[in-house]
Design goal:
Layout: H1 4-7, H2 13-21, E1 33-38, H3 50-64, E2 67-72, H4 78-81, H5 90-108, E3 112-115, H6 122-133, E4 137-139, E5 148-149, E6 155-156, H7 158-169, H8 175-184, H9 197-208, H10 225-246, H11 254-257, H12 260-273, H13 278-290, H14 296-305, H15 325-330, H16 333-344, H17 361-368, H18 377-382, H19 410-413, H20 417-420, E7 435-439, E8 442-448, E9 459-467, H21 470-478, E10 487-490, H22 505-513, E11 521-524, E12 536-538, E13 558-562, E14 567-570, H23 574-583, H24 594-602
Parallel strand pairs: 1-2, 1-3, 3-4, 9-10, 10-11, 11-12
Antiparallel strand pairs: 5-6, 7-8, 8-12, 9-13, 13-14
Helix pairs in contact: 3-10, 5-6, 6-13, 7-8, 7-22, 9-12, 12-13, 12-14, 12-16, 16-17, 21-22
Length: 615
């Protein structure tokens, strides 16, 4: 075993002496040493219960025959970091997390790892470390938050509070209404209840093959997550022992699971669900760490092949219907979405990809697609999990009341699962929910969540209203500088220029709060929260700080957006753009010391995942 490096032989007596001081017993030295890579912190709702999860997972590892060692990563709550300089630290934290996990695994020679992430940059940071270190690994998240329930029966989430805050600025709602939203929108522990970045990435881990089925949708409050945690611990110890016996080449290592084909599978899911645009950034980074050649052009081709069969908050369905991740779970979850794609559009999915279950993705779909004739009883039981609708920060505590999802009618659920996850012949669109745009304004690409764009904004042209920072944009929007028909441009917010490529949730929700959601578009070299919806185009590459065309724009330039045609351009000749480029001068860096200065010096473009390079 890998851990023999620190526990076997006379030369390792000092090491064993130190290990005994941690509680390692006489009979433990012949067992696999398992890293429990947790991310517990009191400041993130998705992580506040992970101390309890970590203790339970360690118990399960022990029962499975392993020796668990828990450590924690840092974590940033993007919602709490939003709208102030703290957001600049969010994306760079992904690299810190990857480096810290790699450091722990390599320094202590663990045999396998269970990752317990839940939110934002923690998931991709752990993924990047997993493929770097390449030891048997399983991801098992803390689970999603329940949606909030207003007295009138309307379901709400964090984004409704952001929109409400902007609407309050214009006195479109009262202080009491905003306070009611604030108190109700985030009722439990767990990753925020829409298909924002956290839930998008946790779902993608299932399709990628590194997480067990139901990982991304089973509520954090549900006692049934204990079954998931126990299965993950048992399977991880099995994988470590199998690897010790069989070696490489048997689908047990992250780099044997994370391939171009399995990344395709994860992006097909993302397109089918209309997930966060941040998934593009993160999966490109994971591919880079895994040594897999993967680019935005490949993602664009998948988008053109994959129907959008599911729309989850902040996107809206027909009749302004809003679904949350708990509804997706009751409709069958990730594998039912994949089953829908495979039934109606076979081709984009690679069903023979290995997964941590020990089965192929196709075999997992057969068992966990609740519409399949071959569905396992366990899938039907887990799909019946519902929330309690009460304040809960404990996690793993709510018992399910129905034995099987087949025991619950549409009246019981309050919606039609066949509408939440549609079949391909009734898809919202025959192309994916994420689209890559190109043109003279984005020669290396830009990303938009097409699933969240209103039909009337799929094509739009208008004059540029330019802001040099995210905070200035928010002030300008709520201050009335932006009018119907405009295109808001927020630049110098890319990986290097920001630095840190902060999210633009405050300006995008301000546009909605000011009643301009169907009249104004926004483009940026920064990125968006998974909670963003509307004609909001991010990751414009090259960024302004690299003399990209977005940095050459002047107020009033006419910007043309054509999402169905995958185009983003400015109505300027190549000669005029070249003339402006000659006059362009780099700006003084915003940070000259600290981790942001280091990040700015090493960060690459968004179209390559904003990974760090120093060669």
């Amino acid at each position: 075993m890998r851990s023999d490096t620190i526990k076997s032989g006379d030369a390792r007596a000092p090491h064993r002496s130190l290990l005994r001081a941690t509680g390692v017993g006489e009979g433990d030295f012949d067992k696999p040493f398992i890293a429990v890579c947790n991310s517990y912190t009191d400041i993130i709702p998705g992580h506040v219960h992970l101390d309890k999860v970590g203790r339970f997972v360690k118990q399960c590892v022990r029962e499975a025959g392993g020796v668990p060692f828990e450590f924690n990563t840092i974590g940033i709550c993007d919602g709490i970091a939003m709208g102030h300089p703290g957001m600049k630290f969010s994306l760079p934290s992904r690299e810190l997390i990857a480096d810290s996990v790699e450091t722990m695994l390599e320094a202590h020679r663990f045999d396998g790892m269970i990752c317990i992430p839940n939110c934002d940059k923690i998931i991709p940071g752990m993924l990047m470390a997993a493929v770097r270190c390449n030891i048997p690994t399983i991801f098992v998240s803390g689970g999603p938050m329940e949606a909030g329930g207003m007295p009138d029966g309307r379901k709400v989430d964090l984004i409704d509070v952001f929109i409400g805050a902007a609407a309050r600025q214009k006195e479109k709602i009262g202080a009491e209404d905003l306070l009611a939203l604030e108190r109700i929108a985030c009722p439990t522990c767990g990753s925020c209840s829409g298909l924002f970045t956290a839930n998008s990435m946790n779902c993608l881990c299932e399709a990628l093959g590194l997480a067990l089925p139901m990982n991304g949708t089973l509520l954090a409050t549900s006692a049934q997550r204990k079954k998931l945690f126990r299965r993950a611990a048992q399977r991880l110890v099995e994988m470590v022992l199998q690897f010790d016996r069989l070696g490489e080449g048997h689908g047990l290592l992250p780099r044997e699971i994370v391939t171009a084909a399995s990344i395709d599978n994860s992006m097909v899911l993302d397109m089918a669900m209309g997930g966060s645009t941040n998934t593009v950034l993160h999966m490109l980074a994971v591919a880079h760490e895994a040594g897999v050649e993967y680019d935005v052009q490949r993602i664009n081709r998948l988008s053109q092949q994959t129907p959008n069969v599911c729309r989850v908050a902040p996107s809206k369905g027909d009749d302004e219907r809003v679904y949350h991740i708990e509804d997706v779970h009751n409709s069958g979850g990730v594998h039912t979405i994949l089953g829908s794609i495979q039934r109606g559009r076979p081709g984009p999915l690679s069903l023979d990809c290995a997964t941590v279950t020990g089965k192929t993705l196709g075999e997992n779909i057969a068992e966990f697609d609740i519409r399949a004739e071959t569905v396992a009883e366990e899938a039907l039981q887990l799909a019946a999990v519902t929330g309690r609708g009460e304040r809960n920060v404990e996690g793993m505590s709510v018992e399910k009341t129905a034995g099987s999802i087949r025991d619950l009618s549409t009246d019981d659920l309050g919606f039609d699962p066949a509408d939440c996850i549609r079949e391909v012949d009734n898809a919202y669109s025959q192309e994916g929910g994420l689209v890559i745009l190109y043109g003279n304004l984005a020669p290396q690409g830009a990303v938009v969540k097409a699933a969240g764009v209103m039909p009337e904004m799929m094509k739009h042209s208008g004059p540029a209203v330019i802001f040099e920072a995210e905070t200035a944009a928010y002030d300008g929007i709520v201050g009335g500088r932006v009018k119907a028909g405009d295109v808001v441009v927020i630049r110098y917010e890319g990986p290097r220029g920001g630095p840190g490529m902060q999210e633009m949730l405050a300006p995008t929700t301000a546009i909605k709060g000011m009643g301009l959601g169907d009249k104004v578009a926004l483009i940026t070299d920064g990125r968006f929260s998974g909670g963003t919806a509307g004609a909001c185009i991010g990751h414009v590459s090259p960024e302004a700080a690299a003399c990209g065309p977005i940095g050459l724009l002047e107020p009033g330039d006419i910007i043309e957006i054509d999402i169905p045609a995958h185009k983003l351009s400015v109505r300027l000749s190549e000669e005029e753009l070249a003339r402006r480029a000659k006059d362009w001068k780099p700006r003084e860096p915003r940070y000259k010391t600290g981790c942001l200065a280091k990040y700015a010096a090493l960060a690459t473009s968004a179209d390559t995942g904003a990974v760090l390079k120093w060669e």
